Every structure is written in structure tokens, then in C-alpha cells.
Amino acid sequence: MRAPLSWLRACVDVPVGATGEQVAADLVRVGLEEEGLHGGGVRGPVVVGRVLAVAEEPQRNGRTIRWCSVDVGDGAADGPAGSGRGIVCGASNFAAGDLVVVALPGAVLPGPFPISSRKTYGHVSDGMICSARELGLGDDHAGIVVLQRLLGPGAGGAAPGQDALALLGLSDEVVEVNVTPDRGYCLSVRGLAREYAHGAGLDVATAFHDPADVEVPVPGAGGVGEGFPVHLADGAPIHGRPGCSRLVTRVVRGVDPAAPSPWWLRRRLQQAGVRPISLAVDVTNHVMLEVGQPLHAYDLAAVDGALVVRRARPGERLTTLDGVERALDLEDLLITDGEDASGPGARAIGLAGVMGGAATEVREGTRDVLVEAAHFDPVTVARTARRHKLPSEASRRFERGVDPRLQAAAAELAVRLLVEHGGGVADPAVTDVVAPGAVPEPAPVRMPADAPSRLLGVDVPAGRVVALLEQVGCRVAVEASPDGADAPGAQLLVTPPSWRPDVARAADLVEEVGRLHGYAAIPSVLPVAPPGRGLTPAQRGRRAVAAALAEAGLVEVITHPFTSPQRADELGLDAADPRRRALRVANPLSEEQPLLRTSLLAALVDALRRNTGRGASDVALFEVGRVTRPLAGAPPAPRLGVQARPSPEQLAALEAAVPPQPVRVAGVLSGRAERAGWWGPGRAADSTDALAAALRVAEVLRVPLSVRADVHAPWHPGRCAALSLPDGTPAGHAGELHPAVVAALELPPRTVAFELDLDALVAAAPEAVPAPRLSAFPPAKEDLALVVDAAVPAEEVRSALLAGIGAAGRAELVEEVRAFDVYTGPPVPEGSKSLAFSLRLRAPDRTLTAADTAAVREAAVAEAARRTGAVLRT
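Below the sequence we write its predicted C-alpha cells.
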């Protein structure tokens, strides 16, 4: 919302000399957000000048310049007529006798653009005659500002030498603030003026001048009759509230269709960011910006019969003011005509609270104007505006809540402006219809008098609480305490003002007290952490995993949880793969990615492709995040209303419909795992690197995993490892991605990846790990070379060795069993391979003998031979 300081001064006592920066600071002090300061970009001598003479001089380049004599009230005489200042100008839309705006040497125009005397086209131009764009009055740069056209025939009494900055409001600063959704009353100068009074510490009762405090005619009082017929026929109220709770109409006849809006009104609209259009439209926009009540002006001659407010009918259409024909929804609230006041309304002429219809808009020849001011339901207006993708200044205010007592005053303000500047005559009859069931008074709120002190953490005496709430506009009564508000247990019964629909409970009142008491007066105190709390085991586990992967050289990323329907095909998933069963988001951020991911790799590959596409050749990424795994046959989530709190049964049904969302960890690697340099040629990342990263996760959590070969998309069928918990529960997969997947996703060749179920790993992690017992005795080392069939995985042989040692009762002696070599070729038979393992043994209480190590060796080899057919290589 933009508010010129001159407009604010008309509504509140802003001190003389206060700058836009100071006013913005006072508004920020009471919780508004400053967006910027505008205007005031013209400085120095900018005056009114009268053109005395104009001499046109053709130039060699084909242009014609105008050598002008301009009287600026200082008696200078150097122009072509022998009097007035000589100024060179290229525009041709002015003549001798016109009053213009002249920037004299020393002035600075927006840009900044300093003005000085300079020689041009053979003359010394002593200033500049200005256009609207050069003055910051608009975008028109085609011609000079002629004051008789801008301000009217008399040019507002302007005379040569008069300060043009004050005359045109060029020195007026404009404060722009961001209005939060709960404070719609601030989308008006009236609301900002009240907030400024709070921020500046002024007494609202004396410093605030309410522009809506006008005397309005009341139907049935003093001979005032019923005006234009209106019927409220909302047959489908939302949440028990009528779509239109009040509607006021006024008629002004005989408005001059050629009457322009006065300059001050147009200037205010421009400063507020609204384009002036015509007198009737400008008047309704001005009143909306001033008091916050949207209005609509109809061409009375185009309205057929009574105005009827109703919901849309099936198949109904409406062409709005923007020229778009719209198919209407049954929930849309309409303004219609075509029947008498008791009829249903035959023709839609406007979307209530959003935009009027083209059929009844005010045109160039409109003489009779019907002014409508209504109070519409915020939910209805918000849904209609979003449904039709049609935000407007009116809907912006209605959906945030408009003062239900403002309609008659706003209509009266509009009528007065139309009569004053359009020459019209207002009908004495007035229509003011209130819907049955409308709530005229805000509901009182009960609050303990000491609640602000308790919740804000700073002592606010009860008397000050009452005073601050009354400054806001509330009516406060003290309950259940004959000794006053300061007595223990005193209760305050607070009735919020009509323009504050956001104040509906005690916490809202406490917020108002804190806001006006001053946020700066509330100390910042860090709460003391209660003992016995901290991170949960799952949180500690997830953080340890992320730290370990980062230490291993992978970079953590956070990707969007959305994916495309084609991603399952690109990953090569089977038709029956449960990862194809994905939830579709009802309102996706992108229509290309409407599904919630069922695996981290579905989104992580996009991050890899972006990095490699930007020139990164060696990339290693990982992510810890949730995936969504819908269950087959799960019940759909119930659609709950907002009119009341859901029942426990409804909440249970909603909870049951939420699909599992396990936490997983995944990583992708491409390029070189070890870079080349003086130390060697480097090494490309392969499937073993992905497997090592997955095992590193398990090692951090102290969960032993078994590894076996597997065929699982999107991995290469010959380079894919399945990882399982000790009880056989699947934990994830690691290996090289399938070449078809790499090609479909445009990834670097031989990209490797892993993905693990982190929830399952954390759940299997031991709660407590005993401290290791350190032995003071030396280790014993044994190397084994076993010949097995080429198809036998090394992990299977390693597991057999460990099982044999355990069966022999020597498991406590094993510190490590590690494969360190694979060999094929003579003398190993064809179709076989030699696997070399290193055994590291140590006893906690003695030095191992040769007999001890031989027994371990024999038990391990025997079990490997039984399980895998391994033969000790000699």
C-alpha cells in the first residue's frame, strides 16, 4: 500500500517537517513492513512559466527546434521576443500564452538529471520546459505539460514564478508498506493514518481525523425514501455466513461525461500506483484507497431492473471488465439484474467483490451513475478470485476483511465527489439492505487483565492495557472485580472495533498490547533448556550419517520432493514395482512434476545432471530426506471442512490415510573418485565406491550389513549389490546405474549410486555400544588365498570364513577379515578365480600361539569349502 504524506496529513496530525523516512519508521514500530520510499525526486528551482513567444527554427539535420521566451517571474530578458528567459525546446504541443513547468539552472529532475544553462543549436538555453515523464508525473514524453490542460482552464490560479513543486505535489514523498493478510484495514490511508498515530505515540482521539466520519442519509429517516431496488438472494451461504451481508446503493444523475477528474485526485491515484481513467472510476478508486471500502460504479441506463445478489447457475457466463468471457462456478457470488427486487436476477453483471461486468460499465457518454458499496464474505471473494485467476484491488481488500459499517459512508463520499466535480445531482432516496443472519457487532472477547504481562514477559499494568486497547478502537469493560482492573483475577471484556476482524481471541488482544506497548520494550531472553532433553537417537543417527558422508568427500544437497510421471520409465522400473505407485499433488508447483517422489534417486539424478551440465566433471552428491510410499488399497483422505474442529474419528481417518514417509539416504557419484596428479593417474568412480559409501553409513550406525549380488532397477544387473540387515530385512542397494538409465537421464557414463532405508538402519542400531577392550598383546596375521568358482561373490566367501571362526568358538579373536586381491589366469583353472583374504587376530589376555592361529585358519577354510566350494590355493 502506497500513501503520500500529503494524504496522510489530511487524516492524521503528521508533524510539520516529518520526512517519509521518519513516517515509515513509525509505521514499522507498530509491526508494518516498509517496502520503500517514492517521490520527492525533483529538487531545486522548478517554477511556473508563461510562454511569451515561440520562434521555430529549422535545422540542417531536418529537425525544427523552438526558441522560446518564457516569463518565470524574475525579469530575465534574453528570448526571441526580447523579454523572458530564452529556452530551447523540441516539443510542439504548446503555444504563446500557455503556462508550463520550467526547471531552472540548479534544479535536479528524477534520474537524477541536473539542469544547467548550456549552448545548443546556436542559443544559450537557460533552463528546460518539462514533460510529464521528466517531472515524474507519468510516462508521457511526447509533449510538454501545459497547466491549463492539466489543472483546468484557470490552471489553479498559477502565476509565473510560482513554485511548481508545491503546485503539482512534486516534492511529496510516498511511503510504501507491505500489509500482512491479517491487517486488511491497512490497505487504506485511513488505516495507515491510525497506525501512524499509534507508532508516533499520538492520541488517536485527537490526532486522528477519520475521513469516513461523514453524515449519511438513512432510509426512512427525515423523509429519505428507499432508493434503487436491491435483493440479497444468496441461496448457498458458505460456513453459515451470507455471501453479501450488506449492500448500499446511491444514484447520481446528470454527471457531465466530459468532466475531468481534478488534478489533486489524479495525482493521489498516481502516487498510490493507480492509473486515472475517468471521473466516475477515479472517484470510486479514490474512496477505496482512502477508507478501504471497494466501490463499483454502474451506468444506470445499462442496468435493467433491480440488483440481485445470488450464486451462479449451471452454464452461466460473464464477460468481465477486462474483456474476458468467463465460465462461472456454482460457488461464485454474482451481481445480477433483469428482474424486480423479489426476482431471481436474470443477467450476471459482475463478480461480487472481484470485478464488474462489461455490459454495465461506465462509458464516455454515461450521465447517470449507480454507486454500489457492499460487504462481501471474505472466503467467497477469495475463492472466486483464485478460481478465475482474477486478483483485483477490490478482492485484495474483501478477502482480508472490510469494515461492515463503512458502506454507507463510502458511498456518501463518492456521491459528494461526483456532485462536486461532475455537476451531478444525488437522488435523495438511499438503499441500505442488510442480509438476515448478518452479524452487525463483533463478538466480545474475555481476557484476564494480567494476560499481557504473563505472555509478553514484561510488566504491563492493567490500566495501560485498557488504555492501549482503547487506542486500538476497542471498548473495554472490567468484569468480576469491584476494585478495578489492577485487582488480582480481574477480567476484561473487550469488544473489538468493526474494522478489526482479525481480533477474535485473547491472544490477539495480547498481540495488540505488545505492538502498541512497543516491541523494543520486550527483552530478548533465551529460554533455559530443560534438563533431560536433546536430540533423539534417530536425529543423532541421521546427523552422524550426514557428517560421515561429507567427511568421505560427498556434498550434501536438498532436492525438491516432486518428480515427473515419466521418471519411473526413465529409471527402468517394472510395471509391478511399488515405486511406480506415487501420490499426485492436488496443486503442484509445476505441472511437469506433479508426483511426490518414491525414491531419493528420482530427484537426486536431476541435481547430478545440473552440476555436470555446468561443467563439473567429478561430482559426488548425497541427500538425507523423506520419500512417500503409498500403500496399495489405502483409504482416501477425507475432505474436512473448516467450520468446526474435526472430531477424533475424522482426525484418525485423516491420519490413517497419510502414506508412509520413510527417511532414506542416497548418493550419486560420477567422474573420478581419485584425481590424477603427480602421485598417479587417478581412478574413476565405480560400483565399489557406491558400495563403500553405503557400508560407511552402516558402520557409523554400528549396524552390520550383509552384501549379495542382485538385479534391481535402476542398477546394472551385473554390478548391483543388495544390502540387508542381520535379520534379513532389506536395507537398500548400491552399484552402477544401468546404461539405459544413464542414457535416458543424460547422466555421465558409468554413474554409480546407492540408496538405503535410513529409518530401518537407525531402528536396528544398538542403543548403547560398550567401550572397546584394548589388548596389550600383539596381533597375529594370516593371509589366505582361496580358489572358487568365478561366479561366487567375494562377500559370500568372507561371510563363510567368519562363520567358520565363530563355529569354532574363536569369534572373539577376530579383529578383521578383509579381501585384498582377486586373481584370474594360470595356474588358476579357467572359470575360477583366486580370492586373497587378510585375517587379523588378537587375544585380549595373551599372545596367540602358532597353534591358535592354525586352528582359526583351519576352521575358517573348512567352512568356506563347505559353503562355497573354496579350495586353499598352494
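The longest strand covers residues 46-58.
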